[in-house]
Amino acid sequence: MVSLGFMTLVAHVYGAPTAATPHCPLRRMTFGALGTHCEIQYDCDDAARGAAFEQAALGWVQAFEAKYSRFRPDSLVSRINAAAGMSWVEIDADAERLLALCDTLHFLTQGILDPTMLPLIRLWNYKAEQPELPSDAAVEAAHRLVGWMQVQREPGRIFLPQPGMALDFGGFGKEYAVDVVAQIAIDHGITGVLVDFGHDLRGIGRPPDRPAWHIGLEDPQRPGTHSASMALTQNRGVASSGDYLRRFVIGGRRYGHILDPRTGRPVANGCRQATVIAGTCLHAGILSTTAFILGATKGLEFIQSFPGAEGLIITESARAQTRGFFNHVVS
């Protein structure tokens, strides 16, 4: 998963409340953050409680972005990256917990999720006006700067030992934020909420007078259209990874934005989309990205190794899914 997400899911509520149905107090909050469009839909008939929740959610997201975004020159992450190869940087207990989470995710994904991928992300810049293929030497040089196990940590401080090393929490940061905001809703007594940050999602409860939150799954062959709709009930997260929107083409060959840390190059295994439903958005996100990078066969095996997770992988010529995935599909 890269820094800004994959934009492959579209969330909506079938028969959403309108002015004609005031008995269904579904509230919506939208804002821009974490490099994407964020929307929160929630059920609350108490205006004061809803306002308190919105203030707390927005405040937390803004603080999280200010501290951990690599695009903010004064953020903690930017300060850590600027000190690479030169000095240790002091960190607080909150950052310690986030770095410990990096340890866990790196281990669980067998090294596929690596927070030190930024040198390669910068090299394979699909956003450039005229993208260019980096040379083999440039890829090798950037690849040498990648490796979570190189990062040195002591209580209260961190050090990137090589000049040019850099951290980027975009591989999981947005999904992590989705789950935190969902918990903030619960803490404010809100039992029905759908948090959607760049179409990485977490649903709690259900919308008012509706059986479920319905999530439209985008068709990678026809971006902007839905191939199916999923019903999200109880407490689940959904994330989808794909390379059909964020990529460039040179010489008739496409180069997607999802990079394989083992090769230092864009994934080229025929996958177009991997979607996972799991207990949290973070869980779904790391599984979908890892599965996409591993490819259809190994990716599906990886998803199935996590109890409660269900997934769908679409390749250029086929579809593969876990046995229980389509229990969530309603159309």
Automatic annotation (TrEMBL):
Magnesium. Can also use manganese. Keywords: FAD, Flavoprotein, Lipoprotein, Magnesium, Metal-binding, Transferase. InterPro entries: ApbE, ApbE-like_sf. One of its GO terms (molecular function) is transferase activity. Signal peptide: none annotated. Its EC number is 2.7.1.180. It comes from the Bacteria. It catalyses: L-threonyl-[protein] + FAD = FMN-L-threonyl-[protein] + AMP + H(+). Belongs to the ApbE family. PANTHER family: FAD:PROTEIN FMN TRANSFERASE, THIAMINE BIOSYNTHESIS LIPOPROTEIN APBE. This is FAD:protein FMN transferase. It comes from Opitutus terrae (strain DSM 11246 / JCM 15787 / PB90-1).
